[in-house]
Design a protein that fits this description.
With 718 residues, the protein is of the alpha/beta class. It contains 19 helices and 29 strands. The protein has a 7-stranded mixed β-sheet, with helices on one face. Strands 1, 2, 3, 4, 6 and 7 form a 6-stranded mixed β-sheet that branches. The protein has a 5-stranded mixed β-sheet with strand order 18-17-16-19-20. Strand 11 and strand 12 form a beta hairpin.
Length: 718
């Protein structure tokens, strides 16, 4: 255990202000006996509280809470808040649902599992067990049996408890070892604590990978809960509380979660109307937390919960607690009504898209023909049964797993100052002025629109003006953008964050955002927002994006690597300042670039030098997979636990370790001084040079052989 400042504090006995469950002494005793029998608890060396404190034991109380939906069933909870205040916090990188786009492709098959006993599979270091001493309360002697070693009141945590601050960190580090072992055996796996998911191209491959997963779990002494997870490969399942439909390529809200949200929202509204808009703060916060769990499937989730958060903030629940009553505002009533209407599934309802910005129809078949969305060759009876029970009508709240290709580009800009003919500044926007296959946009290769601010808008802050400029541009070109996937270049980072999250705390900008959302839903526009530096004039249209991926290798080292596997012809991820080759692609329009966005052109027939941003490595590998005639030399990190690592092992025929120093990493000229290039953010990072040859076989055919032989590489690794 790591304590703050590295100093181990003295022992203590934390006594809560009130006892929650002394009447449930029989249930508490039964839970204690169960945990002692399974080895989760062990009796303390002595049952004398003062002696335990003198020996440095940190004693925290335990209590029981009822399990939701189950009568006379309780869960033991240890209040380790006093211990957590003394411990050092650790940062954790979780693999959420958004990482699934790098682990598979549309139409793939998946299965999930849940490990049994959770954190209890980890044993606490014996010398540190005294810091996790648990007080079960004096009710252990309620039946007349005295407190003793056979009937202990004080026990030690032999397994990792759920309430300890660093328990998730230790558990994630342990699961990463299992994940790396699965990746070595060719299984594309993603873990979120004790929940795992595997995506495969075919059902047969999923069945083979399922056997590998079961074998690996057995080797580590772990077992899965047979009552949880989707162990049978399918294209429609529930993972982390959200529905995942790989056939349609969307995240969606499950029917059970919809009914629960709609029912709770109705109960809150009815109770508020009966009690002059007053409801319990805890009840409202619990609903907000439940609704927030759908943010991966409902784009407007945070935006539609903001009025509820405003009500809780006005009551200062962080100061006065959640036991008080709060009064709902009209905006809060409207937000609750939105959840009621959106989560209600009615036969024949063909309303507008309730999901928002980046949502799409769950399927495009009419009610009564759910079999049209099924794979004709796959007996996915589970998906068919769900669709027969709840025929998807109209557009359901869902978000795409994989982004669709951009079909139109717009840019917007707002100014707070103007010339004599435009006092107070104005706004401007261009459509099609930055097409994906054109080098440098200007006034002649796109449409432009502009305007000046009204008198009531001239004194606004620049951020509301930038948001208004986006709405004005969408309204001006609503016909041209209808049913399109639009890329918006925005030079205000606050507006970029607002449009990506669809949420803002400002009431004025919230009304503006509401109009943008309504316009996007009405015209069926999917908006993708990216940030650029402000463009002052058309001759210098965009400036480079400042981020940690803007770096290159020193020319002497890069020159050797460029010719290691043959001469590279095109630098796919560069700009005019960082390009290593005369031919290069850029992420944004700049002088000398052949193409804007390397993913929009074919790489076949050329040998590419690929040093991508690390968050795009998965997309790069899948592009090489779909273009077998393309050759590439890739400069990548050595990251065995990454989602794209198994695919790299299948595609690359040779990998070479690249030894570098800090002086070999050259940051871009416009990288901010406080930014660190990706390879230098962690002293443990290693780089590798991988070669993907042209005219290769289908990766899955080579991979099926490598699973049997236990080898996943065809080249040399040194």
């Amino acid at each position: 255990m790591d304590f703050e400042r590295g100093v181990k504090p003295q022992g203590f006995h934390y006594v809560p202000s009130r006892t929650m469950d002394e009447k449930l002494w029989r249930e508490r005793k039964a839970e204690r006996d169960r945990t002692l029998a399974m080895g989760a608890f062990v009796p303390a060396p002595t049952q004398d509280r003062h002696e335990l404190v003198r020996r440095g034991h940190m004693i925290c109380p335990a209590f029981l809470v009822p399990k939701k939906g189950k009568t006379n069933r309780y869960r033991m909870v240890i209040n380790q808040i006093p211990l957590n205040r003394l411990c050092k916090a650790r940062r954790i990188r979780f693999q959420g649902l958004k990482n699934l786009r790098h682990a598979g492709q549309k139409g793939c098959w998946a299965f999930t599992w849940d490990l049994e006993n959770g954190y209890m599979v980890l044993q606490v270091f014996k010398p540190h067990q005294k810091y996790m001493t648990v007080d079960l309360g004096p009710s252990m002697a309620a039946d007349g049996e005295p407190i003793s070693a056979s009937n202990p009141r004080y026990v030690l945590c032999n397994c990792m408890p759920f309430g300890y601050l660093a328990s998730p960190w230790y558990f994630v580090k342990t699961m990463k070892v299992i994940q790396e072992e699965l990746h070595k055996r060719g299984v594309t796996c993603q873990m979120w604590l004790d929940d795992g998911i595997v995506l495969c191209d075919t059902r047969e491959l999923a069945l083979r990978h399922r056997s590998i997963v079961e074998e690996v779990l057995g080797e580590f002494g772990l077992t899965r809960q047979k009552t949880k997870g989707e162990w049978e490969p399918t294209q429609d399942l529930e993972h982390l509380g959200v529905g995942v439909n790989t056939a349609a390529g969307v995240f969606y809200v499950t029917a059970q979660r919809k009914r629960k949200l709609s029912t709770e929202a109705k109960r809150i509204v009815c109770s508020a109307k009966r009690h002059k808009r007053w409801v319990g703060a805890r009840w409202l916060a619990e609903f907000a937390g439940l609704a927030m769990s759908t943010h991966d499937a409902v784009a407007q989730c945070a935006h539609r919960l903001r009025p509820l958060f405003d009500v809780l903030a006005a009551a200062q629940v962080w100061l006065y607690g959640y036991g008080q009553q709060v009064r709902l505002t009209p905006a809060a009533f409207g937000a609750l009504q939105w959840w009621i209407d959106t989560m209600r599934v009615k036969q024949g309802n063909t309303g507008s898209n309730p999901g928002g910005l980046a949502e799409m129809p769950l399927n495009k078949v009419s009610p009564g023909r759910p079999e049209a969305v099924l794979n004709e060759e796959s007996p996915n009876t589970q998906l068919e049964k769900r669709l027969m029970e709840k025929p998807p009508v109209g557009k359901q709240p869902c978000k795409p797993i994989w982004r669709a290709p951009v079909t139109q580009v717009i840019t917007t800009d707002a100014s707070g100052e103007g010339a004599a003919e435009a006092p107070g500044g104005g706004w401007g926007a261009t459509l099609g002025g930055a097409p994906l296959n054109r080098v440098r946009p200007d006034r002649d290769n796109g449409q432009a629109v502009r305007g000046i601010w009204a008198v009531e808008d001239r004194d606004l802050h620049i951020t509301p003006k930038e948001l208004k400029a986006v709405r004005y541009a969408l309204e001006a070109w609503r016909v041209q953008l209808r049913n399109r996937h639009v890329l918006l270049w925005e030079d205000n980072q606050a507006v970029v964050g607002i449009l990506r999250r669809l949420n803002t705390k400002s009431p004025g900008m919230r009304a503006e955002l509401e109009q943008i959302i309504d316009l996007l839903e009405e015209e069926n526009i999917v908006l993708q927002v990216r940030y650029i530096k402000s463009a002052v004039n058309p001759s210098d249209w965009y400036s480079r994006i400042r981020d940690k991926s803007e770096w290159r290798l020193r020319y002497e080292l890069a020159d050797r690597l460029l010719h290691y596997f043959g001469t590279a012809e095109v630098d796919r991820f560069a700009d005019s300042a960082l390009a290593l080759l005369p031919r290069f692609n850029a992420a944004y329009p700049c002088r000398g670039a052949e193409t804007v966005d390397a993913f929009t052109v074919s790489w076949e027939g050329t040998h590419s030098w690929v040093n991508p941003p690390w968050n795009h490595i998965g997309r790069v590998l899948y592009k090489l997979w779909h273009e077998p005639a393309a050759a590439a030399t890739l400069l990548l990190p050595v990251w065995p636990s990454a989602e794209w690592w198994p695919l790299l092992l299948r595609l690359a025929t040779a990998r070479v370790s690249v030894h570098f120093k800090a002086a070999d990493i050259v940051p871009g000229p416009l990288m901010l001084p406080d930014m660190t290039p990706e390879p230098l953010m962690n002293s443990g990072w290693r780089l590798q040079l991988a070669y993907v040859p042209p005219r290769r076989q289908t990766p899955w055919s080579r991979f099926s052989d490598s699973v049997n032989t236990g080898t996943g590489l065809a080249g040399e690794w040194r």
